[in-house]
Design goal:
alpha+beta, Peptide Deformylase, 5-stranded antiparallel β-sheet, two-stranded antiparallel sheet, 3 helices, globular, binds 2-phenylethyl (2E)-3-(3,4-dihydroxyphenyl)prop-2-enoate, binds cobalt (II) ion
Length: 171
């Protein structure tokens, strides 16, 4: 399955993702291909909508203490719902759909989610640290929200200017 990352300002990123109903081979193939794209692009998290599939599916692979991302640490999260959130933390985020731009974003420090795995089994994760931040970042994608939407007006303006300049340089 050939996938490419959808990049800002593509409007496709603004679509709201739909609940996953069929936990079939097509879903498994998509998840497997998403994993390869994420690894090839040095990502730690990727939502299906970022590869043009607007469904409530995301993957996460947070680096371990040796900065490695073995496949057994991969989390595949389908139809997530946040059931608890608490605290506050700030982290410098990036996004594969907004390449080469990083900014401090405030999130909840801990979150608990209910979700389904690729075989529709119901699961719960209580997350803190980078995992909690990544879950919130990826779940925003399911709503069509990007981390740059959370910037102050002046930082957002600065971003738009820098991003346009970078896009020109690429061409
Ligand atoms: C979301 O982001 C995230 O600009 C995942 O040139 C980010 O994997 C969650 C990436 C921070 C929590 C904290 C970005 C790779 C990867 C780039 C990513 C780039 C290459 C971003
Ligand atoms: Co992102």
């Amino acid at each position: 399955m050939k996938l490419t990352i959808v990049e800002y300002p593509d409007k496709k990123l603004r679509e709201k993702s739909k609940e996953v109903i069929s936990f079939d081979e097509n879903l498994h193939k998509l998840l497997d291909s998403m994993y390869h794209v994420m690894m090839n692009t040095n990502g730690i998290g990727l939502a299906a909508i970022q590869v043009a599939y607007p469904i409530c599916a995301l993957i996460l692979n947070i680096p371990d203490e040796n900065e490695e991302q073995p496949r057994e640490n991969l989390l595949e999260i389908i139809n997530p719902v946040i059931t608890h959130k608490d605290g506050e933390s700030v982290y410098q985020e990036g996004c594969l759909s907004v390449p080469h731009f990083y900014e401090d974003i405030k999130r909840f420090e801990t979150v608990t989610i209910n979700y389904q795995d690729r075989d529709a089994n119901t699961k719960t994760i209580e997350a803190d640290g980078l995992l909690a931040i990544a879950i919130q970042h990826e779940m925003d994608h399911l709503e069509g929200i990007l981390f740059i939407d959370k910037l102050s007006y002046s930082r957002r303006k600065k971003f738009e200017k820098e991003y346009k300049r970078m896009q020109k340089e690429k061409k």
